[in-house]
Design goal:
- It is a single chain.
- The relative contact order is 0.21.
- Helix 5 crosses helix 6.
- The chain has six helices and 17 strands.
- It is of the alpha/beta class and 352 residues long.
- It folds into two domains: 244 residues, QueA-like (3-Layer(aba) Sandwich), CATH 3.40.1780.10; 79 residues, QueA-like (Thrombin, subunit H), CATH 2.40.10.240.
- A hairpin with a 4-residue loop joins strand 8 and strand 9.
- The longest helix is centred in the last third of the chain and has 13 residues.
- The radius of gyration is 21 Å and the shape is globular.
- A nine-stranded mixed β-sheet has the order 2-1-17-16-14-3-12-13-15. It has a six-stranded antiparallel β-barrel with strand order 5-6-7-10-9-8. It has a two-stranded parallel sheet with strand order 4-11.
């Protein structure tokens, strides 16, 4: 399976640089995963595609202000550090730029010494382990000194850092937002619940691997980054009951999808618990629990384009992307959304 099979040509001007003022006013491309049929809607029309008895699964991770700018001790050299994952207490795995200035033993001062970091090891893919020292509470210092880790394709400054969080973000730990959730407002979620749709919360802390390009020609040679997830007993029961009662499980975002598919056994039952997942979903994958997906438009040749291709078929996905480009949809993190559902005549009965 060649990585080039997942390429599409995207005009630069369609990469959304800023969030919309009203989260739920984005557009929605609805794709029938069996027939490839496409409809163009607004995101609020999502209500017409959900049925009582369905379960919407959302990722309540919270993005931390993970980008820190410091100075190397004994020099004026500037160093940028991006927190990827906490290994233990004050030791974090990080991405460092420029790497050549951050050898083992290097000491970096942030915020005129409020926070100090010492590089203690170089690990896989050139990432570093850094040990922080400070007085007070780390999260408060991070909030004071850190910036939101926006993806590299967003060049505009974010005026309100809450716009790179979902309205239901709760558990600190992500280096990137689960962006499919950015379209929801609290009001829209209330309307969905009022319809008789269950909302289940899971947590997956999104790593920077989300943005890493696939650097191998053969997709099967790609190694996925690992991410930490939590599925609580009560939430697993909501999802399992939905399946048992004939409802559909619709994930908000590829992170929710990867969590469920990682924690579900071959018997189709979701198990509560926590752990690390490196699941890589590409065409040929048999989904164990997921029925539908709300997602954004993803980068060409990315693992996320491969995931949606596994769900709806590569041809249907590339055709939908082509259609979205023609219709001038907004792409990537702050862009428009896509709803991928199984073919179901009655799902349109609420449509006007």
């Amino acid at each position: 399976m060649d990585v080039k099979d997942f390429y599409y040509d995207l005009p630069q001007e369609l990469i959304a640089q800023d969030p919309l003022e009203d989260r739920s006013s984005s557009r929605l491309l609805v794709l029938d995963k069996e027939t490839g049929e496409i409809e163009h809607r607004g995101f609020k029309d999502i209500l017409s595609y959900l049925n009582a008895g369905d379960c919407l699964v959302i990722n309540d991770t919270k993005v931390i202000p993970a980008r820190l700018f410091g100075v190397k001790e004994g020099t004026e050299a500037k160093i940028e550090v991006l927190l990827l994952k906490r290994k233990q207490n004050d030791i974090w795995e990080v991405l460092v730029k420029p790497g050549k200035k951050a050898r083992t033993g290097t000491v970096i001062h942030f915020g005129e010494g409020i926070l100090t970091g010492t590089i203690i090891d170089v690990v896989e893919e050139g990432n570093r382990l850094i040990q922080f020292s400070y007085e007070g509470i780390f999260e408060e210092i991070l909030d004071q000194l850190g910036q939101m880790p926006l993806p590299p394709y967003i060049t505009h400054q974010l005026k309100d850092k809450n716009r790179y969080q979902t309205v239901y973000a709760k558990n600190d730990g992500s280096a990137a937002a689960p962006t499919a959730g950015l379209h929801f407002t609290k009001e829209l979620l209330e309307q969905i619940e009022d319809m008789g749709v269950k909302i289940a919360h899971i947590t997956l802390h999104v790593g920077l691997g989300t943005f890493r390009p696939v650097k191998v020609e053969n997709v099967l040679d790609h190694h996925m980054h690992s991410e930490f997830y939590i599925v609580e007993e009560e939430e697993a029961a909501k999802i399992n009951d939905t399946k048992k009662n004939g409802g559909r499980v619709i994930c908000v975002g590829t992170t929710s999808c990867r969590t469920l598919e990682s924690a579900t056994g071959e018997d189709g039952v979701l198990k509560a618990g926590s752990g690390w997942t490196e699941i890589f979903i590409y065409p040929g994958y048999q989904f164990k629990i997921l029925d539908g997906l709300i997602t954004n438009f993803h980068l060409p040749e990315s693992t996320l384009v491969m995931l949606v291709s596994a769900l709806a078929g590569r041809e249907h996905i590339l055709n939908a992307y082509e259609e979205a480009i023609k219709e001038r949809y907004r792409f990537f993190s702050f862009g428009d959304a896509m709803l991928i559902l199984p073919h179901q005549e009655e799902q349109k009965s609420g449509m006007k």
